[in-house]
Amino acid sequence: MTDTLLEIDNLSVDYETGRGDLQALRDITFNVNKGEIVGIVGESGCGKSTLISSILRLTAPNTRFREGEIRFKGQDLLQVSERHMRDLRGADISIVFQDPMQTHNPVLTIGQQMLDIQHRSKQSKADKRAHATKMLGAVGIPDPEARLKQYPHEFSGGMRQRIAIAMALMSEPDLLIADEPTTALDATLEVQIIERLQELQREFHCAILFISHHLGVIAELCDRVVVMYAGAVVESGDVREIFHDPKHPYTRRLIECDPGHLKERARVLPTIPGEVPDLANLPGGCIFRDRCDQALARCATEVPPLDQLKEGHHAACWLNHEEATS
Amino acid sequence: MSLLNVVDLNTSYGAVNVLAGVSFSVEPGETYALVGESGSGKTTVIRAIAGLAPAQEGSVTFEGQEIRGAPEKVMRPLRKDMAMMFQDPVGSLSPRLTIRSLITEPYRIQGMKDRDLDTEAKRLLEMVNLPTHFADRYPYQLSGGQARRVGVARALALEPKLILADEPTAGLDVSVQGELLNLLNDLRERLGLAMVIITHNLSVVRHVADRMGILYLGRLVEEGTTETIFNEPRHPYTRCLLSANPEPDPDARLDRIALKGEPPSLLMRPSGCEFRERCPFSKEICTQTPEWEVNGGHGLRCLAPLS
Predict the structure, then answer these.
(1) Scanning every residue of chain A, which has its alpha carbon at the shortest distance from the alpha carbon of B240?
(2) What are the Cα distances from residue B72, in Å, to B51, B52, B69, B78, B79?
(3) Which helix H or strand E contains B225, and what residues bound it?
(4) ipTM of this complex
(5) B203: which chain A residues are within 8 Å (Cβ-Cβ)?
(6) Which fold has domain A4-92+171-325?
(7) Which band of pLDDT confidence, cut at 50, 70 and 90, is reported for residue A1?
(8) Domain ABC transporter: where (chain B) (predicted)?
(9) Of A256, A270, A312, B201, whose CB has the highest number of CB atoms within 10 Å?
(10) Domain residue spans in chain A?
(11) Chain B: residue nearest A45 by CA?
């Protein structure tokens, strides 16, 4: 397909540790198309961060790429030279991090940082400055010209996160990775950031890979959703399919657990009993089996494949397997 | 008599007036939620109650005893009945102490020499559903959710009457968040403890709080039972906050009311109604200063309330 921007194909990543190899990602497969917003949702330890750092190839020294490919515009990012990777980072693929309070250099003005980030551009300093002003305005910072002279501490958290977004979009990247960009912000600011991202996405036509554990935000912003659990993709599909017709028990439980779902006051909130399995010592069969209330005998021994249930909707669960193959 | 009574609490850091007269009370066994944007003063309120932040004016009474600005000598015995759960779960645990030392520290501080600390550690870990062998671990060996539970165990060690919880579920996964809230709910029913909870997760407020107060720029702008506030918010700011809560449904119909601009600087408080410049419903009358008015348990500071 010509409109595919990023293809993650069978990606498996290990961390070498004293306890043996920790299988942080196993057989991750999904695509991001041009101009699409894809959400990755999953709880702590599901491999979201490993996935992002793998795409940017900014991994810890004990990381081992065991298998698979990460193709960006057709080229495998795991094979290209470090030099080439440097050219892609920030220019074609850029990122907004979780904590807006620590993203900026506290001793440089925002303007200086926005000029520095354009170091690749051949434009004059005045043009770069004008570009910085325009981008600040685009993310809704009032009086951008004057604000360029200010330091990060003179901005609120929400503004700093919007500035981080402005900086990430300055080079008009094809792919913007947003790593829990609203987690550190309160609800009103969260909404501001989501709406801003939607507008900018329409304006710049970049694809967004949006990582979050907040289901409300995912539901509102994304076109497609990838659900991860313990280092594997358990379900992926159109945002409506995932929220209205989840096919993997984990996805179902996760959605049930969100208190935003319950309109009436509940005495006992739903939870998912049990713990995430130890990635250094994985159980056989389905990784969610121990916490699943619908597990079959087969789930203990065989790993369920990520089956296509219908066009664009995949789930890795034996419960759906019969349906899919028959 | 209310368990906790806060009257007209004022806190300034230099010229920055963080709290400008906050008043509320908490009954025994009641859960009271404080909500508001970052910088609205939520954390300062509960830190001032616990004596961890200054409060230049006003009164804080706990079981009838005035404790605002009380010296440590007076506060220390009271901390048995009033425990704090801090915002940053890992940061609030000393990295050099084992979990056993951390959760039994309250007994040592209160000089309860008769307690067998190993037994207490075991009891507390079981209470918060952590394996008892965690007693020998250090904070860095815990996940965020586990560290939270250690924070809960430590806060509950002395069976307090009041818990001051600052964002107890921030950064937790939804399933772990549910576990923690169920645990607190259960303990509340069994031990009858009261709670002041700060959170910006409104879905959480709806499930745990009996009553709630909405803070804006260090002042309460609305207060009432959780049910009333959710069903009939009367202050435009409350309405905006409630409408900003993203719902886990892609087809949810969003009647979102956008807040205009940024919160004003505390150094230059706006005249009249302080929310006026950002308020989508402001009227001419709003240039006057609104007073706090209570009507049937529903408090409001607004001259042009919504119906």
Answers:
(1) A188
(2) 8, 10, 9, 10, 10
(3) strand B219-225
(4) 0.80
(5) 258-260, 262
(6) Rossmann fold (3.40.50)
(7) very low
(8) 4-242
(9) B201
(10) 4-92+171-325, 102-170
(11) B143
